[in-house]
Amino acid sequence: xxxxxxADVELQVREIVGTVLRxxxxxxxxxxxxxxxxxxxHVEIIFSVEDSFDxxxxxxxxxxxxxxxQITESVWLYVAT
Amino acid sequence: xxxxxxxAGDYYFVVEEKTSxxxxxxxxxxxxxxxxxxxxxxxxxxxxxxxxxxxxxLLIFTFAFQMLKMNSVYSLTxxxxxxxxxxxxxxxxxxxxxLPEYILINTVLHDAVEHSLDVRDxxxxxxxxxxxARRLEER
Lengths: 81, 139
Known about the structure:
The complex is a heterodimer.
Chain A: H1 6-21, H2 39-53, H3 59-62, H4 68-79
Helix pairs in contact in A: 1-2, 1-4
Chain B: H1 2-6, E1 11-16, E2 23-33, E3 38-46, H2 53-67, E4 72-78, H3 82-91, E5 95-105, E6 108-118, H4 122-137
Parallel strand pairs in B: 3-4
Antiparallel strand pairs in B: 1-2, 2-3, 4-6, 5-6
C-alpha cells in the first residue's frame, strides 16, 4: 500500500498550480508575487487541489492560501489526520 | 458617489454576501451606448480577502447581457494592474487591446488595457463562472 508523503502532496500541488498558470513553478511559488495568479486562477487551483485530494477547504481560509507551501500544508493537515 | 446616482444609464451595485448580508464591495455598469448596444463595467472594488470576485463579475455580465440585452461589455484596466488584467484574461475574454496613455489618475496618464466580451462568447464565460460560483456557494 502506497503511503502519501508530504513531498507527494507538494509535488502534486506544484503540478496543479503549474497547469492552471501554464508555466513551471517551484516549491516556493507565491500567489502574492505572481500577477498571473489572479483571483479566478486561485479558485481554479483550489478546486483542482480539492478534487485531487478529496478535501474541502473552509471558505474562510481560501484567500489566505498564499502559495504552494501553504496549500500543501493545508492539504497535509487534512490527509495526515 | 452621489453624482453617479444622478447619471442616466449608470448602474451602481453593492455586492453583498447572501447569508450574512455583509458588504463585499461595489461594481458598476455605465457608459451605456444604446445605439451600439455596448456598455462599460468597472468601478469594481472588493474588500481585502473577499471571495466575491467570481460572483460579482457573473452578476454584472448577467445584468448587462440578459437584462439590458447588450451586445458587448468592456472594461478598462490600468495596464500596471497586472492581477486585474490577468483576471480578465482568465475569465476567457479574448478580445483585448492596449490603449497607451489612456487613463488619467492624479494628473498622470497611464496605459490601459481594454477587455471586451461579446454576447456570442457570453455562454462559455457564463458556464465557467457559474461553475465556480456554485462551488463557492456550497461552502
